[in-house]
Write a structure and sequence with these properties.
2 domains, 16% strand, 26% helix, Trp Operon Repressor, Chain A, 5-stranded parallel sheet, single chain, 7 helices
């Protein structure tokens, strides 16, 4: 995949030459090209901004340099998407990163100063915001998008399963992780993780991911598509966190049907 970033501060992207992204570039999994659209300004001072019509504070990015920069790009080798980094854009989420990872060529336009000339928006296929706050420019947002998308490209991470259980990969926060030592300053690793019983460990991890999402991000919990095997885990969690019962209608349909041969009726309960 190729990432092309239009910016007037290419020096800000030095962190992309470190760690996993550096290795991904060296092995040809991704390519990152930085385009300084100031070089496309045609006045002698290379101005890329001007005062807004109608008055107001700050400076607005001019359309001409950015239009010229976009039109100078080589034709894409596959599917291309042009993205404008903007606080008015769609909120960037893991599912959007997954969608963008299907493209061959992403062009990211970084804003700066007070904002864009409105006509620049016509260049973009989509506008993206990384959060409900304001940054000094789109460069940091562009790096966030590049990192989140690049790690989904096959071969960028060591193993495909490296990101399968990440927070947000299934709409859940990640389960708690532990490493050596087994006890540190009185804090012990849960015994189940030391048991070697992989099936039980997976159940524990799923339950803790459900618990953590409910407690820390109830907004995410409301959108989770629960699996049939989650039913009993969720009922256990209701016993531990009674307030979860308010969401029971979201998994009630997963309740296993009782087999007729059984004489003893099994009831949910704590």
């Amino acid at each position: 995949m190729k990432f092309t970033v239009l910016t007037i501060f290419p020096e800000m992207f030095a962190p992309l030459q470190e760690s996993i992204l550096k290795r991904a570039q060296n092995t040809g999994k991704i390519k990152i090209e930085l385009v300084d659209f100031r070089t496309f300004a045609q006045d002698k001072h290379k101005c890329v901004d001007d005062v807004p019509y109608g008055g107001g504070k700050g400076m607005v990015l001019k359309p001409e340099p950015i239009f010229r920069a976009v039109r100078s790009l080589a034709p894409p080798e596959g599917k291309r998407k042009i993205i404008l980094l903007s606080p008015q854009g769609k909120l960037f989420r893991q599912e959007i990163a997954s969608e963008l990872a299907l493209y061959n060529d992403l062009v990211l336009i970084c804003g700066h100063y007070e904002g864009f000339d409105e006509r620049i928006r016509s260049l973009a296929d989509e506008e993206i915001s990384i959060g409900d706050y304001v940054l000094t420019g789109g460069e940091l947002a562009a790096m966030v998008v590049i990192d989140a998308v690049a790690r989904l490209i096959p071969g960028v991470l060591g193993k495909p399963e490296s990101f399968i259980n990440d927070s947000h990969s299934e709409g859940l926060l990640e389960y708690p992780q532990y490493t050596r030592p087994a006890e540190f300053e009185g804090m012990k690793v849960p015994p189940i993780l030391l048991s070697g019983h992989h099936a039980k460990i997976e159940l524990w991890r799923r339950k803790e991911a459900l618990r953590r999402t409910f407690l820390r991000r109830p907004d995410l919990f409301e959108r989770v598509a629960f699996k049939p095997e989650d039913y009993h885990l969720l009922e256990e969690l209701v016993c531990e966190h009674p307030e979860m019962a308010a969401y029971r209608d979201k998994w009630e349909h997963l309740k296993p049907k009782l087999k007729r041969r059984k004489t003893r009726r099994v009831e949910d309960g704590c």
